[in-house]
Each structure stands twice: as C-alpha cells, then as structure tokens.
Amino acid sequence: MKYWKQGFYDEPQEGSIEITEGYYQKLLAGQSAGLEILESKKGYPILVEPQYSLEDVIKIKYLKYKYLTNQNVSTLLNYQVEVCG
C-alpha cells in the first residue's frame, strides 16, 4: 500500500489517505503521459489535464513553430545537397 498526503509515502503519515499499489501505478503512468496529479476536494489524488495560461500556450505554439520551421529548413537543405551534389 501507498499513502497520499500532498505527495506519496510508503508509510502512513498523519492525515494521509491509503491508496492501492494499482492506483498508485495508474497515477504515475498518467503523470508520465503528461497529466498532473492533484488532490480532489476529499483529499484523494486524481489525474487532471494540465491547465496552461495564455502566456504558456503562446510559448508552446512558438516553440512548435520554431521546431517545425527548423525541420523544414533542414529537410530542404538535405534535399538540396542530394540533388545538387
């Protein structure tokens, strides 16, 4: 068994909630997939989609744009080298 009190513990903590090993593994898998572990109103750990601010969304979109632009330029340069020798 694992225990939750705004984080995971192997041993009971004062005010902690006991969770099964299976649920613990599910939470970790969700976190690895990009979800966040937050606490429900009743104090249980739950998985939620991350909430981004407008500033975060703009940064993410810009970084994706830069990445795709660099990929396209790189592909074009590789093609040019292959064709032109």
What does this structure look like?
51% of the residues lie in helices and 19% in strands. The strands form 2 sheets. Strands 2-1-3 form a 3-stranded antiparallel beta sheet. The chain has 2 helices and 5 strands. The mean pLDDT is 89. It is elongated and about 70 Å long. The chain folds into 2 domains: 2-48, no CATH class; 52-84.
Helix and strand layout, with pairings?
Elements (H helix, E strand, L loop, with lengths): L1 E3 L3 E2 L7 E3 L1 H12 L3 E4 L5 E4 L5 H31 L1
Strand order of the largest sheet: 2-1-3
Question: How helix-rich are the residues, as a percent range?
Answer: 40-55%
Distance between the termini: 63 Å
Radius of gyration: 22 Å
Please report which band the strand proportion falls in: under 5%, 5-15%, 15-25%, 25-35%, 35-45% or over 45%.
15-25%
- The SSE string, one letter per element, is EEEHEEH
Number of strands: 5
**Major sheet summary line:** 3 strands, antiparallel
| General form | elongated
Structural class, by secondary structure, is alpha+beta
Describe the structure in brief.
This protein is α+β, with helices and mostly antiparallel strands and 85 residues long. 51% of the residues lie in helices and 19% in strands.
Describe the structure using short key phrases.
alpha+beta; 85 residues; 2 helices
